[in-house]
């Protein structure tokens, strides 16, 4: 009869959030918490360490143990029915209570606890059943539509978990508390303490879930921009407002968290990371070899230019991370940074130009995704959106503008990151960042 870990090992590689695609997971249980439920639906949160990749990764797997078959079944360890908690109403109810009302559950090494935000108005209502947000997500988000006057809530269950406060929670909570309207109001969070899977096994605390108000009926800008690019419809108005919103968010982050001038050591570290990404991209997509001299040239020109200050940033800004909310304006989501970057780097002050470059790459991504034969000229569309975004960013006067040589280098670096990301997750899309590197190389 299969064990729980065997069932998880067969199920995890089929999940979008499983990072080490192509390998069989090598799993070890690190922590588990019993979160109640009923005798027919026992709710647990498991932390499992996967050592199949180069670097061990710790995954959060909420589960529900049921006696009857379920459409969200993971497997049947020891004859019982093990269900994916994110698709099960019993886990939804516990999660909603944790983020809106708080609570604490003991574990062998430390507790799992929920904390509502001090600004969140606690409701006594019961949520309607949650739905899982569809889409290509690194995590799993649940939407609670709520009853009565309660606001809908989106709760992101982090799949890869790390010691320390998740930057998504850290940055968005600080911005929201400072009154920024460019992030959704915070509802609450879930954290836990566990023994780190390394040799020393010391006790650490980390984030498991983050809940914010959900804006219903708003499409993410990727879908909106893609449609505009397909139709050749002008996007310069929204792009310019988006530039202003990103600049104001950068300025707010620079007020809320420490900033410092870039030193020679920062430039060396950045250059080393650019080169490491170039090598990773070459391994994933050997066709890039022909463009190496041009890429190296872009890096060298940037390193000779003046550099901006370091500060906390979004870290993975693209059109899929922003929504244009009627009556509120542009809202930025998901401040977790790039999923392929180590968490220690994502917590550190960085260059705001990384976000600007990410958004510029995204306009180009939309243009390169337009099916052949559509009306309009997608590349002219992207050029107009790009110029409008940069105009908004500079005109707001809120944030530092960066030397164009430094911006170009961050754009190439982002395209190299995208090459690796797409090779691992969506191989059919690799042609998009590859074409970008080729264009940059052609000058
Ligand atoms: N507060 C919100 N209101 C409306 N839509 C949201 C909200 N938060 C997230 N979304 C939608 O969910 C998608 C995924 O959320 P995100 O935080 O980017 O998750 P992930 O870290 O898994 O990529 C976003 O692109 C957006 O479309
Ligand atoms: O949203 P995530 O933090 O999970 O970001 C990762 O996945 C993104 C794709 O979902 C990826 O973004 C790339 O594709 C987008 C279109 O789907 C495009 O808008 C972006 O410009 C492009 O980078 C992102 O790089 C990755 O970190």
TrEMBL record:
<keyword id="KW-0808">Transferase</keyword>
<comment type="subunit">
    <text>Monomer.</text>
</comment>
<keyword id="KW-0418">Kinase</keyword>
<keyword id="KW-0320">Glycogen biosynthesis</keyword>
<dbReference type="InterPro" id="IPR011009">
    <property type="entry name" value="Kinase-like_dom_sf"/>
</dbReference>
<feature type="domain" description="Maltokinase N-terminal cap">
    <location>
        <begin position="11"/>
        <end position="88"/>
    </location>
</feature>
<keyword id="KW-0067">ATP-binding</keyword>
<dbReference type="Pfam" id="PF18085">
    <property type="entry name" value="Mak_N_cap"/>
</dbReference>
<protein>
    <recommendedName>
        <fullName>Maltokinase</fullName>
        <ecNumber>2.7.1.175</ecNumber>
    </recommendedName>
</protein>
<dbReference type="InterPro" id="IPR040999">
    <property type="entry name" value="Mak_N_cap"/>
</dbReference>
<keyword id="KW-0119">Carbohydrate metabolism</keyword>
<comment type="similarity">
    <text>Belongs to the aminoglycoside phosphotransferase family.</text>
</comment>
<keyword id="KW-0547">Nucleotide-binding</keyword>
<keyword id="KW-0321">Glycogen metabolism</keyword>
<comment type="pathway">
    <text>Glycan biosynthesis; glycogen biosynthesis.</text>
</comment>
């Amino acid at each position: 009869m299969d064990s729980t870990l065997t069932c998880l090992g067969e199920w995890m590689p089929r999940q979008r959030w499983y990072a080490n695609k192509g390998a069989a997971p090598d799993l070890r249980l690190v922590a588990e918490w019993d979160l109640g439920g009923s005798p027919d639906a026992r709710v647990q949160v498991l932390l499992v360490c996967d050592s199949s990749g180069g670097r061990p990764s710790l995954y959060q797997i909420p589960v529900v143990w049921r006696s009857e078959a379920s459409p969200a079944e993971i497997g049947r360890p020891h004859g019982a029915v093990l269900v994916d908690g994110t698709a099960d109403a019993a886990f939804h109810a516990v999660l909603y209570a944790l983020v809106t009302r708080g609570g604490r559950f003991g574990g062998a090494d430390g507790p799992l606890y929920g904390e509502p935000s001090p600004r969140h108005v606690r409701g006594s209502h019961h949520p309607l059943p949650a739905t899982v947000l569809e889409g290509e997500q690194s995590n799993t988000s649940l939407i609670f539509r709520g009853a009565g006057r309660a606001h809908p809530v989106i709760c992101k269950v982090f799949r890869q978990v790390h010691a320390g406060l998740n930057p998504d929670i850290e940055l968005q909570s600080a911005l929201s508390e400072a009154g920024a309207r460019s992030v959704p109001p915070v509802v609450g969070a879930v954290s836990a303490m566990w023994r780190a899977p390394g040799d020393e096994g010391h006790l650490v605390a980390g984030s498991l879930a983050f809940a914010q108000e959900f804006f219903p009926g708003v499409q993410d800008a990727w879908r909106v921009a893609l449609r505009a690019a397909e139709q050749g419809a002008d996007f310069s108005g929204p792009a310019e407002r988006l530039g202003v919103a990103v600049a104001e968010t950068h300025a707010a982050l620079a007020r809320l968290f420490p900033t410092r001038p870039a030193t020679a050591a920062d430039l060396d570290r950045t250059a080393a990371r650019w080169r490491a990404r170039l090598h990773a991209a070459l391994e994933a997509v050997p066709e890039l070899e022909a463009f190496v001299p041009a890429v190296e040239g872009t890096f060298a020109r940037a390193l000779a230019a003046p550099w901006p200050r370091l500060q906390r940033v979004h870290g993975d800004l693209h059109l899929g991370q922003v929504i244009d909310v009627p009556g509120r304006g542009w809202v930025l989501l998901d401040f977790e940074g790039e999923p392929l970057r180590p968490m220690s780097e994502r917590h550190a002050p960085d260059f705001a130009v990384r976000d600007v470059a990410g958004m510029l790459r995204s306009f180009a991504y939309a243009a390169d995704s337009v099916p052949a034969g559509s009306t309009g000229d997608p590349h002219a569309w992207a050029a107009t959106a790009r110029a409008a975004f940069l105009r908004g960013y500079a005109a707001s006067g809120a944030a530092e503008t960066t030397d164009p040589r430094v911006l170009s280098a961050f754009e190439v670096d982002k395209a190299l990151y995208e090459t690796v990301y797409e090779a691992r997750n969506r191989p059919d899309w690799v042609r998009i960042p590859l074409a970008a590197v080729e264009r940059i190389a052609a000058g």
